[in-house]
Design a protein that fits this description.
This protein is of the alpha/beta class and 216 residues long. The chain has six helices and 14 strands. Strand 13 and strand 14 form a beta hairpin. The longest helix has 13 residues. The structure holds zinc ion (ZN) (2 copies).
Amino acid sequence: MTQIKTFYFNDLRECTYLLWDETGEAVIVDPGCHSDSEKDRLVKFVESNNLVPVKILQTHGHFDHIMGNAFVSKKWNLRTYIHPADKPQLERAKQYTEMFGYTIDEPSTDTIDLIDGGLVQFGNTTLNVIHTPGHTRGGVCFYSQQEGNKFVLTGDTLFAGSIGRTDLPGGDYDELMESLLSKLVVIGNEYRVLPGHGPETSIGEELRSNPFLRYE
Ligand SMILES: [Zn+2]
Ligand SMILES: [Zn+2]
């Protein structure tokens, strides 16, 4: 059974997720740790639970989701899985992050492409990949179809009560609505939603109450 730990990192309170299962293998989704104390919290959690991180998964390439990528990838010798359309943001992460007044190490660009309908595996866990452009061109969601433990990591595509902004470069409102309504919410009401910011929710709850999720 896959377990999940949420960390809130950096000034943007970005959600970094650590996923692992009974094998001890783990993946780190959107490593946003920036300060030394944030990095320490992540390392201590991994070490005290005897976990072995094997991959970095990126829901998208925005700097708040990537700030800890270089640290994490060096610490555990990990490669990053990212959609090719967001790879330019990873390649220029240092420069972009400096525009917001933060300094980070340059992430490795030796990445593995995520594709729509693809699978990511670690331990006994399989995650499905959905390409959900609209917040960024290469945004993806990861979901697990495990019976009794269904969840989806939505990055900045879907939040509790809100949706991702589309006014940044690569953003497109119509594309985001298409991703949300015809690719994401159709996976099923029972899925826990673990977003890139803010509290967790579920697909069912968002379909009931999220004012942005409207079919026109
Ligand atoms: Zn974002
Ligand atoms: Zn974000």
